[in-house]
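In this supplementary section we document a worked example of the pipeline. Step one takes a protein sequence of length 99 as its only input; no multiple sequence alignment statistics are reported here. Step two produces a three-dimensional model, which step three serialises into structure tokens for compact storage. The input and output of this example are shown verbatim.
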Amino acid sequence: MADKELTRQIKLKTGSAKRLFKEYQSYQHEETREKQRLEKLAHEDADEVLIKQQKNVISETSQMIPYCKKKLEQAVEELNKYIVRWNDQITNLIGRECN
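The serialised model returned by step three reads:
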């Protein structure tokens, strides 16, 4: 495989894993934030409709976390397989770029 294509594929696969990691973290933070908001609404004796809506928001967010985790794991696995498959060429490419 040509060096340019190898580098391109590594960048694409790494970028995908980074993006999915950020998305996963984002949903985790959102879930925490929304749970705090629900607690605040409950302490303020907010309208039941608002509380129900907030519970729906939390439910939707919570459902996304396992989905994002699975996609992230798949992206990391794909990157690892790619690196293992092309290990010798990657090592040579890194060696040339470091010199």
